[in-house]
Amino acid sequence: MQPLTDIKPGFSIYYLSEHAITLEFGHDISEDMLWQVSNFNTLINQVPFAGFITSVPAYSTLSIFYDPIQVIKAEELPGQDCFDKVSNYLRQLKSYSDTESPSSNDVIIIPTCYGGKYGEDLDEVAALHQLSADEVIKLHSEAIYKVYMIGFVPGFAYLGGMSAQLATPRKPTPRKTIPPGSVGIAGQQTGIYPLATPGGWQLIGRTPLPLFDATRTQPAFLKAGDQVTFTPIDPYQFEHYRH
What we know:
- The protein is α+β, with helices and mostly antiparallel strands.
- Helix content is 26%, strand content 30%.
- The strands form 3 sheets. Strands 6-13-10-11-8-7-14 form a 7-stranded mixed β-barrel.
- β2 and β3 (20-24) form a beta hairpin.
- The chain starts with a strand and ends with a helix.
- The relative contact order is 0.14.
């Protein structure tokens, strides 16, 4: 599918439906791409157009949903139809996002108990890479990760920045249930399961932190753009934290 509208530099606009369009910033997964998507997502929510409903960020895209009736009635939005009106507004807004610089976030520490019943695949991952379990833990916990997106299930954080030495394929047969807080590896990413769900990631540890709580003002503990690091804890600390 070819882009219907190009905005330089930065992204292209695609028609998604009568109620939505998608902005594509590129095709790579990188910190720069994350910043571009996150920055524009913040901006559109701070300065929405008439009829704006919500926006959904992903690795390299941002989908924007709106009420077409409100958009078409908005005289302040120039254009012949909803696509033109929203696209023209985004062209004007784009220039502001390019003048900002990425902000430095505090690093969020995720206490994690590695191996054993908390990370059943740790030894398998270590053997695959000809490493000891302790070496896997060291490599995994010494990195600082970026939350690239939240998806799959509410609050599930996809983290970039893992050592290439730990890149591991998903399990050939997914587990029917993975405990909440499980820390896994799939390909070149690591992630944290916030809820008990099926999944095929290689499980190397688990955190006692509640990563999703619908009663909180911000239900998901992590959000796109956060910086994260893991710190090893023992089983006693894990159980003590939970209680």
